[in-house]
Amino acid sequence: QSALTQPRSVSGSPGQSVTISCTGTSSDVGGYNYVSWYQQHPGKAPKLMIYDVSKRPSGVPDRFSGSKSGNTASLTISGLQAEDEADYYCCSYAGSYTPLVFGTGTKVTVL
Amino acid sequence: QVQLVQSGAEVKKPGASVKVSCKASGYTFTGYYMHWVRQAPGQGLEWMGRINPNSGGTNYAQKFQGRVTMTRDTSISTAYMELSRLRSDDTAVYYCAREENYCTGDYWGQGTLVTVSS
After folding, report:
1. pLDDT-derived band of residue B102, with 50, 70 and 90 as boundaries?
2. Residues 56-115 of B with CB under 8 A from A
3. Which of B41, B92, B101 minimizes the C-alpha distance to B68?
């Protein structure tokens, strides 16, 4: 199972929107509505931001939204804030034998 | 409140084995799969496998088949990940994570740094 493909980095100014893509195949992203997104600050454990493609856990700001089209999922951060600067990873269910696969990770920089 | 507390940092020599523990509290341990994920320095997240604490059943990533063993002790709500025949490129932070649903790791341990060096 290969890692899902994400852009290495994206950047935006405070208040702007950025979108991170996560491209897989019909065996993972395209085959199931089980895509999650994690935020990771340096030296910290990952934090769940989006699950089941577009659902937000309690406590996650509604500036974070998720979507999916075909084999590509996306995370959009609207109204970018300084504290959003972090690494972001997508994750997709990939079947019962290899249940999940992560994306390659994207560094979000707030200019 | 839900907590996953992992064992402390380890330094191992190449060829040795390491066993990392993850003690769960604040929920029914047998009710949720536990996953193990690692992150090498400066690298991304890598899924290693998962265990069903209720049955003990496991799924391992193909890359680690034959080298990793995941077990649990339900009497003390603790999951374990043992990696054998360690190499220098196994140097990483190892995390346990509770699975709420597919790919939904809602709680994570603090991470355990394993350093493999001669």
Report:
1. confident
2. 59, 61-62, 95, 97, 100-106, 108-111
3. B92
